[in-house]
Structures are given as C-alpha cells and as structure tokens.
Specification:
- With 199 residues, the protein is an all-alpha fold.
- It has one domain.
- 73% of the residues lie in helices and 0% in strands.
- It has 9 helices and no strands.
- The protein starts with a helix and ends with a helix.
Length: 199
Amino acid sequence: MTEAEETYYTRDRWQNWLARVEEEELDPENEDSARLLLNLQDDAAIAVAKIVSAHEEETLDEETALEELERVRDIVLQEPDFDIDDEEERQDKLMLIDGVQTSLVCVFYAAEEYIAAGPAEEAPLSEYIEAAAAAEQEEDLDAALGYLVQAGTRIIEGDELDMAIVDELEYGLVSEWVNGLDSLQSALSDPEVVEEDDE
C-alpha cells in the first residue's frame, strides 16, 4: 500500500528519529533532549491521528485503517538497533526510547478500539484515569491499560484531557500511558493533520 505508507508513516521516518537519538548526547533533564524525545513521540501520534481522521472521513474503511495502525505500530514498537560502542550509553538510549514506545502503546490501542468499536461510555476523563491508577496500585495492569484505552477513545471523540491530573499520578505505567494520550490529544487538535488529510 505505497500511497498509504507515504501518507501516514514510514520505517525511514522512524529510523531518522532514531538516528538523531543515536547521534546526540541525551540527558532527559535537559530541555533539548526532552524536546527531541517528545517530538519523536508526537510525530508517531500524528500518524495515528491521520489514520483515525481518514477513517472518520471515510477515505479508509475499517479493515484498512486497522491494518495501517498495525503497520505503524510494528515500525514504532520494534526495538532499536543502536550502533553505540559505549554499552552504558546504548542502554540509556534504549531505555529512553522504551519510555516513548510505552507511552505510544496506549495511543495505538485507543485508536484501534475507536475504529473497531467507537468511543467508550461518556464519563469524565479524570474518572477513567483514577480507575487506571487504582488498578495499577493493585498490580492489575491489563485493567489499568483498559481504562486508559477507553479514555483515549473519549479523547478522539473530542473530550479534553487536563494534564494537571498527571501531576497527581505516581510515576509508573499509567503516567507513561497518559503522557501518550496527551500526545494523541495534541495530534488530534493540530489543524495541520486535518488539512493534510483533506488534500
């Protein structure tokens, strides 16, 4: 599906981001480093938003949209192959990319759920996130992810995520997944995405 690959996301695009990560000295505390990782994450989220938008505009049917999401997910969630001699530096960069990939897992699942089944029941996003945090404390990560996937479908539907709620979350998988949902929200609200789909 060459046209779709050009429109949504390519392996080369992801590899270009990884090449930048490989080349640069990264420190998550440094603003430039954090920005690079966030841009990499947002770029993948924009591809997801484009696929969802194309499905809503009926330029992609359900099966094709789900296939496209799976294709992009396979590109983005593959473990990077960094050619870095310093093993500690290599492991540090793998860990940083793993954080980005973890955040994006929820984005892919939410988009798939939305396309296949539509938005979850309307409820404040804070309730979904609180339920996810409670499930994480009980070590029920499947349930935690499920709640956030539902929250993600509500974000696609147009509900707004207040990132202030993240400040109240303990660092863990739920906070990573919510961070991904924030990227999805940004991608959906970016008019550039819709304009490119319209062309």
